[in-house]
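Predict the assembly for these two chains.
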Amino acid sequence: MFLRRFGGIAVATALVAGCSGDIGSEAPNIGAPKTGGTKVTDGAGTEDPNSSAATDPGAAAVTMVVNSDGTVTTVHSDGSSTTVDQNGMVISSTPAQVDPTNPDAVNPDSPAAANANPDTATPAAVKSRCAPGTPQSSQLPRLTNVQYDNTVRDLLNVDLGLAASTLQADSKGNMDARTWKSYQDAAKLIATTIVSDTTARAAVITCTTQDAACANQLIADFGAKVFRRPLTTDETTRYEALFADTTLTATGTFDEQMQVVFEAMFESPFFISVAELSETASTDADGNQRYALNDYELAARLSYMLWDTKPDQELTDAAAAGQLTQGTGLADQAKRMLQSDRAKGLVQRLHMDYMRMGANTRWTGYTRDATKYPAYSATQSDALAAETLKVAESVVFAGGTFADLMTTTTGFVNADTAPLYGLNPADYGTDLQQVDLGANRPGLLTRAGFLAANSYGNRTSPIHRGAFIMKDVLCTKIGDPSPNAASTPLPDDPSLVTNRQKTDAQTAIGADCKACHQTQINPPGFALENFDAVGGTQTQDNGADIDTTADVIVGANTVHVTGASDLMAAIAAAPEAKRCYTENWAQIAYNRVLSDQDACTVDDIAQKMADGGYTLSQLITDLATVESFRYRALETTEVAQ
Amino acid sequence: MNRRRFLQGAGGAALMAPFLPSLLPKAARAQSAFPTRMVMYFTHNGCLLDNYRKTDRTGALDLSGLSTFEPLVGMEQKMLQIRGLAMFPRGTNVTVGGTTIYFDPHDQGTGSKLTAAYNDPDNKWAMGRSFDHVIAELVNPGADKTPLVYSSTPVGFQDVKTVLSYKVAGDGKAFTPESNPGKIYSTLTGLFGQGMAAGPATEADYQVLRGKSILDVTSEELKSLQAKQAMSAADKARLEAWAELLLSTEKVIVPGSCNADAATALGISEDSIKAAGGTVTTGSSSSGGGGGFGGGGFGGGNVADQMNTGMAMLQNLAALTMICDANRVILQHNQSFITFDFDGIDAPADHHGISHRTGSAAVGGDTYDPEYYEPFIKKIDAWYGNKYAQLVKLLDSIPEGDGTLLDNTATIWLPELGDGEQHNNDDLPITIAGSMGGFLKTGQIVDAAPPSSGGGGGGFAAFGSGGTPLNKFYVALAQGLGAADFSEFGLADSNDVDQGITNPGPLTEILTAS
């Protein structure tokens, strides 16, 4: 989980990046976890030529113009142009101006001809590594600790918090002695709780007469919930025999005997692992071998992906009726489940990862100069992080699109954070309250949380803000910082007044610094200079007017922006940003390092997003219903990873 | 009236009671009502310290990544490692009667180990009684106050370098370990039906039985998974690893009662002893083969059998001894000059020679080749680690009260030397499993002393000059065994024997009460 967390840390340290090539849109993070500033490698650890830039940003081939009505017109290198609205919907287009005798050549009369680079004149901003087939996966993935706790909570109606008290940290690969012991200990605690805790007992032991018949019923019914499928005859026989063996307990009572049964069920590999055992083999269109998941296996995959817990009764019933392998049954359930509050966890997790939030990140534990920023308080950071997640939720669950995420004016403030947005704290309480922050605060990246986190104590950090946008929002590949880059001081030249001027000079020292910073990293950061180090609005810096104009490289295009609104509109419309966001989703939803086969799923969804009008809830539903979700392929590695 | 009938008659409250107590951490329990015991597992020739312990001198014990302790990863909460303990007198030069006398480091290493005494300058034997005899005399039940000292290899205990146990001080005689399991067995059969754990089954007994039955179910389920065809090699490896864990967990399930059933469950019977070449003595008659496993013992028999089958039988007998409370002081002496040409080790020389990295008793010279010999040492260390783990897990599989035999025992891995090449006796690598009923700390590494503190030098450049005397460790063990007034042990706690004991009292750092 959080496979890209290191990327976030690397960004945080990329104060002054060196640029030793490798500029451009980054290919999907396929085959290896992404680490900030490192080259994308394939599974064998060799550098992947496909992952390098598709275009040379130094000779950007196309232009993008943000129109006064918020629409964005992109002029492609082949001379075609497309205008999209703020939702990414295409509202007009003009055809390519192509020489029919030489389709690769750019028409010299086209608007893009002036700066087109014929070597990179391809409309594809990102080269994909899509390899057809079904992603390989273990048939025996163990529950994550979060899933374990949630599942037990839903079975017992009691939250035992075993992840914190008993279980070992999440791990894949072979079971080790310590992990196995922790599962045994946890199973004992669960079994004891069922018979001794009133709430748990009422949730599990539903028979009125507690006898062998009741036990058999519990083994069948509760067992099916624990195993997430009906028990086989052999399994039922084993558990019934366990109940009947009264030599195992001192009293031989129903409770003691059932306690043994419960302990065994929770030690079972069918509880600890979300086993996918169906062996219905087939080949896909490309001749690759694969196995179809059965209804119960699909239910478990879906539920653990969307809710991090076991299937609920409705999903189980749908599985029992065979509906998940038929027609729209799986999608219908995914849509239903997305409407539940339980899906909030997934959405939060995704956006925490996307925004690089959480413990030991820039989002926590920072302090700001309270004299310079009177609106700052040391307790704001938690509320600002919460606001960011609530904004994301509000977009996802209201049928919003990626463009909405980048342009929404919705915010959430309390008395502590209201001053940052120029609001009167007296109008708010301790709880976050939804507000409309207006057109000058478009999207997640202009919320105070992101802006304050990516700042210093007494000034903003255009470098951190810009590097985040380039690397984590646009998936642009940027080289590692030069050695000691972080210790490069701001120049003390008195002629340099604003933070922008100082940063500009700071990053113009060497050719390496300059190459990346001044063309790639700094510009999007400069466009956000109207927001100070605590996320408040500023129009002047050190007594001088702030300049927020910048030429920002967005994929294969260079976009001239006049400030945050332009920048966010450009990001909202950028296929690179949509693909980057999709890739984050796939990693979080599937909880694995993405494979070449996953790249195909990312491609397909990214294309749908680029086509416009594609909601984020549809994105999640698609991840849960695509073919690669409904099939499994055998791992080809010999050793458990 | 059996326990079940009693509980059924006691009514609903008792019937409803879940077996919660077994889930409570050990520390939360009252002091055990069962006897406390000590088992020393002694090995010669030092070890590769980096595989035995981590660099941390304090904190939570974590055995992961240590090849010597691989089988015990996961049991750290019941274990303790101690740093900073040093044996006295030690090294090569010891001052006795104002005169400095030279001793061979192996002579002094074993001679002092359990005696804290110097060796006789003439005949080399230790001049003090060993701790096993001293404390057994104080704490053992019954008339026989002799500790149980055993070795799976029956010869080699006539040289001071290989003698650890001294019943009488300075009589020039070794106390020979028992290698014939039949003799140990015969001392126990008369106790069957007695013993501390005899009587109605306890909750711990049921817990063990339940554990086995549940593991049987889990095992069947894993088998059903392993039968799947469309499964990757990686998933099959996962299942295999899981199944292995189950096997190690359910290896021995023994009811904690002193009777023939317990012996049978441990694989101990007259037939099994005779079949293995042992001699069984019952009453005035005896039958069977030679003395000890392998038909002649070390030097004449099959050492691999002695070290495997024989050692396992002797460890089982040690466990039965505890169940029957026949002895509270047990010493397993693993002999020094074993050539590990079995169990895949294929060592080219005996353990001692390999420990010198020369293949012989020679130190240095042309044959010195640590790169060649150290992989063998690593394997030998892991082999001894496995046998120690075998003993620890055996004791932990046998219920006693609401815990196990292990919980009420200090199962101590005590070495002759620290690093085998250095032949040092400071900062000794010492590991304990079990807490003597909560008397000892567990789950930790405890630093008994800063590396440079205390004590006197040993006259050998490679030896550290300090460390807290091992004497204090023995005092702590004696108190844990019930000898509350025991305050000092040995002839000296420095290399100047004339000073006697200068630092009495127990090693408080390892006591939970400290």
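The CA atoms of residues 304 and 342 of chain B lie 6 Å apart. The first strand of chain B starts at residue 37 and ends at 43.
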